[in-house]
Amino acid sequence: MRFIDEYRDPELVRKLLDAVHALAAKIGRPITLMEICGTHTHAIGRFGIRRLLPENIRLISGPGCPVCVTSISDVDRALYLAERPNVLFATFGDMLRVPGTGGRSLQQMRAAGADIRIVSSALDALSLAEANPAREILFLGIGFETTAPTVASTLQSARRKGLTNFSVFSVHKTVSPAIQALLDDPELNIDGFLCPGHVSVITGTDAYRSIPAAGRSAVITGFEPVDIIDGILMSLQQIREGRYEVAIQYARGVSQEGNRRARESMAEVFEPDDATWRGLGLIPESGLSIRREYASMNALNRFPLPGIPSVEFEGCRCGDILRGVISPPECRLFRKACTPVNPIGPCMVSSEGTCSAYLKYEA
Ligand code: SF4
Q1: Which domains does the chain have, with CATH numbers?
Q2: Is the ipTM of this complex over 0.95?
Q3: 5 pLDDT band (50/70/90 cuts)?
């Protein structure tokens, strides 16, 4: 199949791996690269890439899964909103099993009778609003720059249509401030980043400027084996030469400028706001709040929230995993109390989560 086979070509993979091994030997010191995209984490596991690399090249996973980085307080707030009278709560399927305080989840609430529907896009939620004018349709807006523009255009569309029963609880986040937090983290020593292909389609290279400025490599990388190994090779070239830049490996999907129209749509509806990330804590201006012009469609205005005390599940180390400080087998609950059937933290729940990837491919 075109565009897939050519990026899984065993001969090409072998050549790239030879080049990675040769360059890693020349560099001669341990190198740590972080992938900051859940899709990368799963592709690395699925294609067994970690095992093919030289001993001195270590890949660690970062905060690239939007479900995983959603703080427990935001999960608790979503649970509260989903139980408001007359609310039809629409969400992506991955959020359903994410536990809040005390292990309660949207899935449990749905089983107990709350009207919680899985949708595949914000537009699906908008259709629910049109079909159910007597109900309050509340959509949980989650994700990075990849999904935020589609939610923004849905809110614009809702306003054009004059819908008054549609609102969004935005827990959207942006990648660039999180990268800065990782660069500033004294516990981490990352030599370079494999930057997320999907997010970069929207942001272009601008979102990653801080990485070369801090003397680390940055390569926007695709998701097939050839892409990932090529991305690693390009990272090592930057490190070896001490010449840092934001390079694009995933040139078939990403341009330097990104998608300006999508960013404009996002900026019309959302404004940067402080946000709390699981594992990374409060990061200034890393979230997207709904602008005043769209206040009537901001779920937080329609359904004022009480103070909700949130408590993390004891022993779950998702926070450390999302910072790349530990790998899943280092969590004592991994594969024991915490499994895909009985997930304790979001890193095991989400299809993009690091713990689920490890269990599926590497344990
Ligand atoms: Fe949390 Fe489970 Fe991962 Fe441990 S294995 S960090 S409990 S999700």
Answers
A1: 5-64+175-248 (3.40.50.11750), 67-173+258-302 (3.40.50.11740), 318-362 (no CATH)
A2: yes
A3: confident
